[in-house]
């Protein structure tokens, strides 16, 4: 057989197995549908009985495994590259064993595995076996499928000693083939080509804190997402019920990664940009806008904790020159509390209760203090005094102004008044920092990402705002959906048990934080409220941090770890950047951050980065030419990474001029982002506009330029404006 006959023969052979898997799944889908139907009928015929989905399923235990597979198949994303993607040929003492590996496990009628779930122990050798330690694997085969058709095969021979006459070896390796494919606007899963060091991090124990570090392009994000899928597989009860939260830097990034988990058959993980995390206690409020570097540094700092406490304690009512006072007349007796007495009552109550939960106690304390002033010989029934006080208009008006329910946004907005900021920030922020803070809350400002953590902090200091009680809602919507029925009942029970002392944070059993080097200390506090009982996966690279104080970043993670069990993994290979590009990027970052963890780039393209120059007036026309050329040169995306001060103008001016040369499909391949928005993303070709301005405009300086330079998978062009560029490394 010649090579192409051999390939055709092998493809046909693998296709036969894949066909058998799909046939079995069709059968299982039918039986799953019948099972759901029967379950629903039982549920509907006896609505008084509590019916759990598991109980319904138990009726069909004879093929529960395949039933589950069919259920999970329903959530598998259509964009993935095939349900079955791998095959292992193992040398067993008796005979050769063949194992097929896939996104989900499937068994035949005799309960024999047709496909093993990639997360199962039996699939481990697919990822871990090496020629040095073959783990009994003779040949590892990656199958490339388009829908249910096998279209390609890539083999690795792991045990060269073994007799492989019956095992032909095809292709040049799956990893390289996968890395050189064009990138689209969505991240793809790597389930067919996970590397051994990545596999260790994915399958690490769930308890405590798992830290995954590594330079740009080492697969930290994609590994973290596969870890979420692995945790659900290995401990589904705990993590599906308790929930897994994945936090990333911004909405563009969240859109970029959102398809990975569905392509692995998982849709129960909550993905949130850091500006959306506090939405659970803020009525869904979220933010995308970011502050300028100086303001962001102030708002992210732990010093805000003390400042916000001062803010909450600052009375809302203007005390006037004589200070606050409360005067009530009861049957001709004048009762009075002065400023100092009122302050004492306020701090006494707040020493053990939060503002929004303490109004009742504060009123009790006020009434007691006033009642003791009624003379003993007064002509009043002592038991009637409290009611006489609380009925008086003077008392009611005073209490409403002195102790109103406070909303976190209203409280934070008070910082827009420089006099308020000066009072609460005295001894905490210097004058310049106070001015930045006050200016950022001036009339008409929008909430920023950093504000979300401050609002969250305020909610936890204030306590939840009292909500109007309309009584529990006993009507369940969507009654046919059995699992929702249970969830609604659970929620109801929780509300009754926890009542008002509940902070209403959503909490999770596992929290996975990506780009953790950019999480500010205030944001860590916000995240920890969502994971007080959780285990954690923390992913990041300090050398890409845009936060000015790197020690603070390290301290925040150490605090989180505390005494919990923890483990660290370092990923050492850069799968994204061509060696030519990464060589330049490493030289740039090392100048300002010599400790940067630099991975080894595995690919080279033969194209050196192009370091070009232009002038402000020629910038747009030069960019048009460059982008035009790059869209021809690469099959996927072209990213234009520009400093924030230039981005809007480029977004406006460039597309109309590009449009005259390109069709719409090509225009969709051109994307405009700031370096901060580019975090975690990648493009086939990248133009970094005005690198010196990127350094100057970002709190992280050169580290943020490093992020921009490490985004391309194939071509890099830098474009200095009005000068040769101080950022360029010495030749
Ligand atoms: N084992 C693998 N097989 C195929 N592709 C991989 C593998 N590991 C990583 N990649 C690819 O390398 C690229 C970089 O991965 P990822 O974005 O997860 O890296 P990262 O470490 O988070 O990068 P950064 O820190 O720069 O954001 C992605 O295109 C990813 O699909």
UniProtKB/TrEMBL annotation:
UvrD-like helicase ATP-binding domain residues: 193-578
Binding site for ATP: 214-221
GO molecular function, one term: DNA binding
UniProt-listed PROSITE patterns: UVRD_HELICASE_ATP_BIND
Keyword Metal-binding: no
GO BP: recombinational repair
The protein, known as: Helicase
Naturally occurring in which organism (per UniProt): Propioniciclava sinopodophylli
Source organism phylogeny: Bacteria, Bacillati, Actinomycetota, Actinomycetes, Propionibacteriales
């Amino acid at each position: 057989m010649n090579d192409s006959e051999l390939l055709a023969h092998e493809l046909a052979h693998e296709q036969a197995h894949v066909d058998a898997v799909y046939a079995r799944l069709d059968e299982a889908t039918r039986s799953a549908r019948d099972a759901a139907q029967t379950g629903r009928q039982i549920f509907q015929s006896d609505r008084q009985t509590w019916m759990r989905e598991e109980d319904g399923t138990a009726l069909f235990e004879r093929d529960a495994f395949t039933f589950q597979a069919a259920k999970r198949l329903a959530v598998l994303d259509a964009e993935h590259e095939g349900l079955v993607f791998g095959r292992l040929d193992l040398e067993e003492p008796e005979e050769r064993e063949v194992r097929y590996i896939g996104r989900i496990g499937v068994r035949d009628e005799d309960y024999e595995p047709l496909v093993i779930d990639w997360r199962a122990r039996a699939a481990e050798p697919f990822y871990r076996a090496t020629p040095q330690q073959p783990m009994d694997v003779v040949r590892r085969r990656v199958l490339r499928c388009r829908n249910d058709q096998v279209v390609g095969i890539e083999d690795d021979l792991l045990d060269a000693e073994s007799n492989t006459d019956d095992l032909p070896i095809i292709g040049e390796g799956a990893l390289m083939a996968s890395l050189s494919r064009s990138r689209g606007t969505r991240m793809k899963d790597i389930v067919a080509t996970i590397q051994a060091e990545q596999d260790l991090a994915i399958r690490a124990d769930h308890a405590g804190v798992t830290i995954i570090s590594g330079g740009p392009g080492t697969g930290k994000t994609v590994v973290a997402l596969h870890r979420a899928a692995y945790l659900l597989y290995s401990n589904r009860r705990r993590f599906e019920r308790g929930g897994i939260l994945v936090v990333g830097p911004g909405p563009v990034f969240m859109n970029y990664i959102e398809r990975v988990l569905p392509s692995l058959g998982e849709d129960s993980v909550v993905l949130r940009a850091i500006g959306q995390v506090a939405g659970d206690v803020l009525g869904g409020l979220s933010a995308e806008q970011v502050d300028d570097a100086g303001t962001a540094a102030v708002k992210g700092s732990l010093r805000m904790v003390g400042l916000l406490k001062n803010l909450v304690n600052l009375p809302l009512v203007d005390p006037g020159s004589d200070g606050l006072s409360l005067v009530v007349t009861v049957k001709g007796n004048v009762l009075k509390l002065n400023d100092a007495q009122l302050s004492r009552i306020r701090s006494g109550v707040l020493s053990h209760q939060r503002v929004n939960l303490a109004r009742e106690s504060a009123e009790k304390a006020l009434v007691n203090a006033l009642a003791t002033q009624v003379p003993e010989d007064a002509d009043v029934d002592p038991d009637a005094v409290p009611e006489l006080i609380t009925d008086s208009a003077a008392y009611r008006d005073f209490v409403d102004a002195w102790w109103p329910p406070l909303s976190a946004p209203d409280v934070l907005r008070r910082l827009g008044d420089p006099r308020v900021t000066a009072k609460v920030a005295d001894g905490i922020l210097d004058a310049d920092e106070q001015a930045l803070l006050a200016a950022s809350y001036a009339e008409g400002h929008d909430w920023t990402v950093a504000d979300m953590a401050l609002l969250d902090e305020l909610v936890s200091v204030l306590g939840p705002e009292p909500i109007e009680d309309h009584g529990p809602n006993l009507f369940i919507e969507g009654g046919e959906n059995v699992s929702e029925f249970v969830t609604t009942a659970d929620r109801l029970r929780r509300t009754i048990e926890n009542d008002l002392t509940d902070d209403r944070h959503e909490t999770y059993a596992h929290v996975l934080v990506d780009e953790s080097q950019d999480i500010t200390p205030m944001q860590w506090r916000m995240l920890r409220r969502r994971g007080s009982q959780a285990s954690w996966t923390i992913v990041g690279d300090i050398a890409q941090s845009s936060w000015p104080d790197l020690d603070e970043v390290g301290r925040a993670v150490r605090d989180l770890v505390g005494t919990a069990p923890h483990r660290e993994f370092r990923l050492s290979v850069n799968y994204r950047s061509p060696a030519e590009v990464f060589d330049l990027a490493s030289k740039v970052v090392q100048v300002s951050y010599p400790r940067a963890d630099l991975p080894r780039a595995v690919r080279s393209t033969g194209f050196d980065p192009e370091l070009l120059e232009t002038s402000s007036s020629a910038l747009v026309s030069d960019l048009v030419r460059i982008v035009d050329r790059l869209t021809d040169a690469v099959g996927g995306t072209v990213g234009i990474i520009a400093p924030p001060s230039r981005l809007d103008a480029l977004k406006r001016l460039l597309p109309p001029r590009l449009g005259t040369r390109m069709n719409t499909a090509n225009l969709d391949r051109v994307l405009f982002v700031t370096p901060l928005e580019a975090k975690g993303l990648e493009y086939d070709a990248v133009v970094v506009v005005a690198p010196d301005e990127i350094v100057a405009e970002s709190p992280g300086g050169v580290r943020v330029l490093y992020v921009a330079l490490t985004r391309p998978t194939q071509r890099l062009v830098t474009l200095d404006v009005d000068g040769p560029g101080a950022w360029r490394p010495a030749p």
